[in-house]
Amino acid sequence: MSESSAKESPAEKAEAPKFQPKYNWMNKTRSWGMRALPGKAGLKLGDLNMGIYGEIPMHWDDQSRNPRGAVPRRGMPPVGYAIRDKGGLWADCAADLYEEAIQRRWAPATDVPWDSIEPLPDDVEHAVCQVCTELTQYANVDIETITGWQHQMSYGYHEVKQYLATATFDAARHYECFRKRALVNGGGLGLEGPGQVNRMILESRGGWTEAVVYLFLVRGVFTMTLYRYLGRYAHNDAERFIYGHALADKARHVTYALDHLKFALAHVEDQQLVTATLLAIGDNGLARDLRDPVLKEALAIIFGGGIDGARQQGMEVYHALMRDYVDTHLAYCRWLDIPRNPAALPPPLNEYVDAPADV
Amino acid sequence: MSEAVDTANDYELDLGWMDRTGPWNTQASQGKNGLTLADIQIGEYGDPPVESDNQTGRPRGAASRDSTYRIGAYAVRSKSEIWLDNASFLYEEALQRQWSSATDVPWHTIEPLPDDVEQAECQLATFLTEVEFVAGDVPARWVSLTTPDFLEPRQVLLAQVMDESRHMDVFRKRALANGGGLMQATGATSGFVGSIDLSRDFTEMSSRLHVSGEGAVLTLFRMGELMAQNEAEKVIYRLCAQDEARHVAFGVMHMRYMSEAAPERREEIHCYLDEAEGGLIGAANPVGQLTPTSESMAIILGGGKENFDDGMNKIIAIRQRQLREYKKRVVSAGFGDRFESGRSKVDEMIERAAA
Ligand SMILES: [Fe+2]
Ligand SMILES: [Fe+2]
């Protein structure tokens, strides 16, 4: 950076200047000479983390909107952030997930082959519409929960805030496309869901990490499993497209969650046992939702190809789905080293422990 | 529809839910822009309530369960508080026009610049990064407070949060891409722009954020051809302007709806506009007072410190244009009477800027 401009102020010019700039902002930088270069995937958010700009402290005291690495301005009234510890939100993969989400964006209006949807038997259409109604509500909880936390996160950790902006945008797309699917084929929306897990997620007042446990490790893994099975039993290309893309989006949400929880467990005192307690509470909420017959029956009708098939084959696929969910959820808990006692899971979750999914 | 359950089968089905649906036989059909949000606004599904009593978060038009908990706690439940007539269009347009700051900006066109110009670019980028933070956080918070019965405006706000996140990131990228770095934070978002945070009402927030704040930024981005030193910067300003135009349109269209649906709130909205106009040429505006940001803008527009006065003259032209565009938007929103009655000082500001 060249010398201060004060010496070469326009005042030196022969003609009296119209304006008197102070230039007192010049040379105020903590680190100059940065040149982030684009790679073959362009100039990515993570590429900017060079030198001091990539230093991400464990605690972020600054409560202004000072961008990380800029020279702070003193005397700024705090904006008021609840989350100022790295342990409360960080995930190393956030910057990459952010760019990935942008590259993999899709538009339900034009990318989904809506023309491929043909009339379905009445019972099957009812079931599809019921499932879409509940998936819309799941997306709603994603939206309301994440947007409720975003503004509470401090700017030292902007990568996470930015990734979460893509996550709520994903959820907006899911909200929209499941509603569209329900209204496009002679059906309509069904009955609202029972909402125990919804309440649990929205009521995560203990911090963003708690919300992550419920929103992603419980509900997110469950939703992913639903998308996977629904994609397998899709009736047309439109449904296949929707479930496939929603699954890819949801996989990013769960990836962020696992990475964050791994970080939080390693750096936040008592987080491991707190998470175990949260999950024990969460199991009960999920179990209560699962004892409600509506979603289960609708899924069985889809998997069985109608009411008749639902009673046998459809229910068997539903049970396979549940075994898959419990397996995956417990495997993630093991990977995170969260102590869990599968035998203590409340019914009906305990019925699905250790039984291999074979459908 | 519940039919007799065949007990010979393994699982008994209740199926009572099949009779409990929203309006049935709904057949939305797609138009030439695919199946848009507007295409599914049909029958009762397209009819948001004037006052929403939905506290369970159920999708608009779905059948309700008596046993579901009231978990919504939504603060925004009156249609007039948030509605606008073209939300579906703005949302679909946002989806079609998403872009990537990593791959859509030709970063390789950025060449080393004279030190004063690079410093000015970096100061402006530091400021814009701060501003974009606000424009993302605040709408997000309001989404969490809005009933899903008003899903269309909510979807637009979610797209805005995504857009602002990209803006924040593209200006950080610009600051670190050409041998410079971030400069000093301006703190501008704790002043006028920051007061967006303080809003206790959605329309109050929207009048500050969408109409005056982002309106001013939109005029600026539209001057991108003048400001840009290279193709990459041209693309950045053009794409950001496209996004900002949607955000501003949201505010203008909402204000218009509010004015028609709740005329008893017009005087209150005028008060918000009084406040906003007080800050139009303030320190938070890069082409407002002589601040670090406006000085850096003058260097950029003039092409160096030696042409500072030239740059300032361009700034003044931009400031006038900002004010004229602001006035046009407020007129379009249905509040043009403030200019006729002399309540607004914007005309005087335009004249003063010229002098
Ligand atoms: Fe923006
Ligand atoms: Fe904006």
How is this structure best described in words?
The longest helix of chain A is centred in the C-terminal third of the chain and has 31 residues, at 237-267. In chain A, α3 (122-150) packs antiparallel against α6 (208-232), α6 (208-232) runs antiparallel to α7 (237-267) and α6 (208-232) packs antiparallel against α10 (307-336). Chain A has a domain at 121-352: Up-down Bundle (Ferritin). Chain A is built from ten helices and no strands. Chain A is globular and about 85 Å long. In chain A, 54% of the residues lie in helices and 0% in strands. Chain A is mainly alpha-helical and 359 residues long. With 355 residues, chain B is an all-alpha fold. Chain B has one domain (79-354): Ribonucleotide Reductase, subunit A, CATH 1.10.620. Chain B has helices at residues 79-82, 87-96, 115-144, 151-176, 195-198, 202-222, 224-227, 231-261, 266-278, 292-302, 308-335, 337-340, 346-354. Chains A and B meet through α1, α2, α3, α4 and α5 of A and α2, α3, α4, α10 and α11 of B. The structure holds fe (ii) ion (2 copies).
Query: Roughly how many Å apart are the termini of chain A?
Result: 65 Å
What is the SS-derived class of chain A? mainly alpha
Largest sheet report of chain B: none
Largest interface, with Cβ-Cβ < 8 Å? A-B, 124 and 116 residues
Oligomer: heterodimer
The name of the CATH superfamily of the domain at 121-352 in chain A reads Ferritin, core subunit, four-helix bundle
Helix proportion of chain B: 40-55%
Q: Which structural traits does this protein have?
A:
heterodimer; A: 359 residues; mainly alpha; Ferritin; B: 355 residues; Ribonucleotide Reductase, subunit A; binds fe (ii) ion
